[in-house]
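hey so i finally got around to running the thing on that chain from the lab meeting. sorry it took forever, my laptop kept dying and i had to restart like 3 times. anyway pasting the input first so we r on the same page abt which one it is
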Amino acid sequence: METIEVSQAEMAPRIARFSDQESQSAHYAEALGIPREAYEIMAAETLYLMMAPDSQGGPMAQQPAIVGDPGVSMIIARCPPGDKPLLHAHHYTVESFMCLTGRFRIRWGSKADQHIDLEPHDMIAVPPGVDRQFENITDEEALLLVIITGKGDDDFADISMPPAETDFMRGRFGQSVIDGYNKTGVAFRNSDGSIDGPDVPKPIEVSSEDMSARIARTDDLQPLSATSGDSIGVPREVRELVAAKNLFLLMSPEDQGGPMAHHAAIAGPDNISVLVAECPPGDKPLLHAHHHTVENFMCLTGSFRIRWGKGGSEHIDLQPFDMISVPPGVDRQFENISDDDARLLVVITGTSRDDYNDISMPPEVTTLIRSRFGQDVIDAYGQRGVTFREE
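ok and heres what got predicted. didnt touch it at all, straight out
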């Protein structure tokens, strides 16, 4: 497999510094004539669009920090205590929430009468068609990561508001705001069954029991290195050297290929895997490339150095909630450069579950693994779609 080189200048548009981001509500007040107050009430007080396709539709598609591939958006909501959007549904996309700081309550159902509470780095993936809402239930400002996944750009113009929220928005801001949101693809359902805006399917109900299979408690998960030995057939020492000491698989496609296809807490869409790497100081996987998928890194705690290129010759350092999107074909590596254990979010995106059989190791790693562990380990990884490049 061939790799490519990417310069610092070429990588710069694929880096988002959280401290540099501007709220989406400011863009809407100017571009669509929707009052800032109306946007913040319906969505959240402050939303930062960290990554989205350039051509994506819907109400959260203004000036992403990183222009990503179709099918995935990543948003950070900054919420003061008690802040929550109005109840709403996404009809064609999966909306996944990860608590970054504080604690969040996720409610769902047409009456918002079911809920779970998320601690930091817990995650829930809400299926299409379900009314949902999040709320900061702490006494301090808190951050929530929102990952929205669909099959293409058109899927993202899929939000609808239930009748009670429609009546609230119309009574508070008037029909002109409803009409403004309709232009972005938001539908407002009325109590008589009619819809202002594009047609959307009827919402569905999901029981607490069914939703429990879509929740990942990071602190309750076993690392991949402890759970994948039988299926990969390599010693744990090798797995922790090749990947990271503690790598938790929160969500992946069902029956996903590749070396990280084991024991996902949530069976998610075909185009995304979500992992958390928990690393002691200095911990780092070996240099490697993904050839058909995009690997996105977001620092959750501590500080991480992301290296890329031949021998890892280029690098940037990430502080909490900074993000980098590494394109296919580039050798890359992350390292905890802080003095304490730290966590890194890894979001891998592709077009299908078959794309995940795409990892290769550079020649110097091939030599290291062969000399230290033998050809059998290289052969075992080869059965999981990992290629070891030779000089």
